[in-house]
Input
Amino acid sequence: MIKGYGGFYFVYTPEGLWRCSLRGRIRHRGEQVLVGDRVLVRPAGDGVGTVEEVLPRKTRLVRPPVANVDQVVIVMAAAEPEADLYLLDRLLVVVGATGLEAAICVNKVDLVAAGGPSWVEVYRRAAYSVVTTSAVTRTGLDRLVDLLAGKVSVLAGPSGVGKSSLLNALVPGLALKTGGISRKLGRGRHVTRHVELLVLPEHGLVADTPGFSSLYLPVLKREQLSELFPEMEAYRGRCRFAVCLHYREPECGVRQAVAEGKIAPWRYEHYVRFLEEVMAEERRYD
Ligand SMILES: Nc1nc2c(ncn2[C@@H]2O[C@H](COP(=O)(O)OP(=O)(O)OP(=O)(O)O)[C@@H](O)[C@H]2O)c(=O)[nH]1
Ligand SMILES: [Mg+2]
Ligand SMILES: [Zn+2]
Output
């Protein structure tokens, strides 16, 4: 199911988009049909049908409410607005802890020198998939298409980085509002957030969102946090303590790597901020 509208459920089928109503049985059970749900549809002729059954969900995001998401693509701008690496790291942790794949798209590379911003390499070396794009010059769009192909993805990231512009560039005929118009609306807490999955020409499904609002760190144990910083993995074995938070412990391989410039200073700083947050949260529930 890719969108709900006017009491109908629009289902993407191999034969095109079908407008469906819900079988009474589903409605009576109070079962919800979410965008992203895989459903069984009984045809009623001419692009119309009934949703007979909702298949079990692989995953379920709460905000935005989308089922069966495979990956979250975090979009940041190379400039205008300057990339917010704290937000990026926070989103990477939130997405990783939710058990979804995280990928990074650095848009607006037309505004900076060739090669893109230097921080991009840090994330590539940490083994994240990173694509650099421009919705204006269309640089890198083929790689973004590859990243989205065959998957259910959600775009996330701050306002104004070009999420809607990128989708407009990928889907001929699509005319999502761009240019900060949605910014003002998207921030208001009472505005209905309309979620829909767009069908990409290469069979990917992708949702544009006004931003990934679930910025709370999910319930994490303090020892788990460093697993969400993949570049720390290589140095963990050098810590004196088997269970090391890489915080104030002596002879810590991770802190050593930061001191030697092998781990980016801001990544470690953000790690410490998240760690302190997780620890404060744990104390609250003690
Ligand atoms: N130079 C340049 N400008 C871009 C690019 N992509 C988008 N823009 C511009 O950036 C502004 C914001 O783009 P949007 O696509 O509305 O950004 P968004 O991420 O969807 O923002 P929200 O919907 O508010 O979350 C618009 O004025 C776009 O024309 C790009 O690759 N290069
Ligand atoms: Mg937008
Ligand atoms: Zn350590």
Observations:
- The chain is about 30% helix and 20% strand.
- Residues 107-108, 110-111, 134-136, 159-165, 178-180, 182-183, 186, 210-211 surround guanosine-5'-triphosphate (ligand 1) (CB under 6 Å).
- The chain has three domains: 3-54, 60-207, 222-284.
- The longest helix spans residues 265-284.
